[in-house]
Amino acid sequence: MRGMTFGGDRTVEYIEVPDPVPGSGEVVLEMKASGICGSDLHMYRGPRGMSLLGATPTEPVIRGHEPCGIVAAIGADVNERTAKVGDRVMVHHYWGCGACRHCRAGWSQMCERQRPLVYGSGAGHGGHAKYMKVPAGTLVHLPDELSFAAGAAISCGTGTAYAALRRLRVAGGDNISIFGQGPVGLAATQLASSMGARVIAVDISNDRLTLAKEMGASETINSAETNPVEGVRELTGGRGADLSMDASGATEARHAGLESLRPWGSMALVGVGGKFEPSLGWLMSKQTTVFGSFTFSSIGQGECADYAATKGVPVDAIFTDYWKLDEADAAYKKADSQSTGKGCIVEF
Q1: Among 72, 232, 66, residue whose Cα is nearest residue 151
Q2: Domain tally for the chain?
């Protein structure tokens, strides 16, 4: 079986590995969609063998941590209520000890007993190949109403946006400023709009701001042309946003997101990278809540999928590019331009 890996310094390579065979408690999936995530770009641009979380790979691994497909084979000791051949499934791409309090709650990435195995961005083979082997416990049901590409998005970027919005307690009538309109920011814009919020989308790319409008943003601000703090305040009658989210990972965006909040406002930090050194006096005097939100639990992933299915959220709309596995070099070069929506590999 052939799979794609990162060769370091903005290169991709293909490696040959044996076709996976499920062991006890494991399943093999036939990939139908494998998303390209903004966090992949850190490894794409970085040195060969880089990982973002968990155990560091000791040999080249197949990348792609947004896998979605069909159960193709089942190992021993897998209950048919957990998985059976033909099931449409996503993967919660982390695996820990399975027994600590975080693992039992579906937060394997926060395992207390060991560094988690991370599929696609750590030491476990990911979804940029025809087949993928995972523990049956990582599987999350994909509703029939959703496409495999939508399932791939929910397996990281869209699921991450959903989890942060739930922690922000978005409600109808809220003004929320979302800084960064890459795949995660676009998903947050789409979901917050579906929850009834008025979204103010902020980015430095007019192309991405156009996409944000299509995702449901009420207003857009190009922060390369307009002071975003002043822009948000003007759009909210001088009051400031009720809520904000940084999905960019840029230091300037994080500080602007904080300063654009009204008193008693809340901010979620989602983007990877950059720095954040808020004024303690500002936080205290404005009664501000700021928290980090990293991905989601397996339970939250399922809830996001169910929400999208029951509310009719067009998750696929965030995709601007679909690729074959053979086109991975072009796919990552385009993602690296950071001027489009989301990309997805759908032919293996």
Answers
A1: 66
A2: 2
Together in a domain, 46 and 15: yes
Residues 144 and 12 in one domain: yes
Same domain, 16 and 132: yes
pTM score, whole prediction: 0.95
Question: Which CATH number characterizes residue 277's domain?
Answer: 3.40.50.720
- Of 155, 197, 148, give the one whose Cα is nearest residue 176: 197
Question: Can you tell me which residue has the tokens 């074959």?
Answer: 324
Which residues have a Cβ under 8 Å from the Cβ of 270 and sit 6 or more positions away?
Answer: 160, 161, 164, 184, 188, 245, 246, 247, 292, 293
- Residue indicated by tokens 């939100």: 293
- Averaged over successive runs of 10 residues, the pLDDT of the chain (348 residues) comes to 95 96 97 94 88 77 97 95 96 96 96 93 94 98 98 97 98 96 96 98 96 97 97 97 96 95 97 86 92 97 98 96 97 91 96
- Show the domain range for 102: 2-156+296-347
What is the rounded CA–CA span in Å between residue 108 and residue 103?
4
Q: Which residue has the tokens 């929850």?
A: 195
Distance of alpha carbon 305 from alpha carbon 313, whole angstroms: 10
Terminal-to-terminal C-alpha distance of the chain: 10
Does residue 148 share a domain with residue 104?
A: yes
